[in-house]
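== Item description ==
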Amino acid sequence: MNNVDQQEISKFEALAATWWDPQGQSKPLHQINPLRSQFIELHSQGVAGKQLLDVGCGGGLLSESMARAGAEVTAIDMAAASIQVAKLHALESQLTINYQQQTAEQLAAEQTATYDVITCMEMLEHVPSPQSVIAACEHMLKPGGWLFLSTLNRTKRSYLMAIVGAEQVLNWLPKGTHDHSKFIKPSELMAMTDELGLFSRAISGFRYNPLTDRFSLHSDVSVNYMVACQKPA
């Protein structure tokens, strides 16, 4: 229930005002958000009309994309400032999203087998126990439902790209946003999902092209990657 690192929360509180600036410090998230949405839509066979939970929603980039795609969205985050920004932007966008400031574990204590789709993007590397978050998500997922996870691989390349490049050279993110020791290898993530009885159905990485300043989905998972898991029916 207390799977929270207050220092990590403070980092994202400080970013709250720039969540919706596509050229600001959330620029990489804006660039990959359509790719995340594409991956989720493809493997879940569409989210329209489904109950969807976005864990670690931040300012609501993915939450709004899923709502626009027709999902009934609940979104949670522990950064109060981010939740406030998300609520305001949803109001301006005329979207109905149920934003709540709480952890996945707290929500799981109230809800069982509630959601058709659960997303947890770029969040696992910021909590003390990723396994606890995944277990809470599995508990809230309906039989046959889909869990989408994304995080950073713990490799030399991810250190160079995500920390040296994104934080220190390009200034895409504030210095200290990421801790390389908290990055999660795909094999480690798969071990967590396997232990909970989830089936890993697909994995995809992101590839950045500096010439076009664009990201694309790629088989290379050495930096950022996403996994689609399904709960047995």
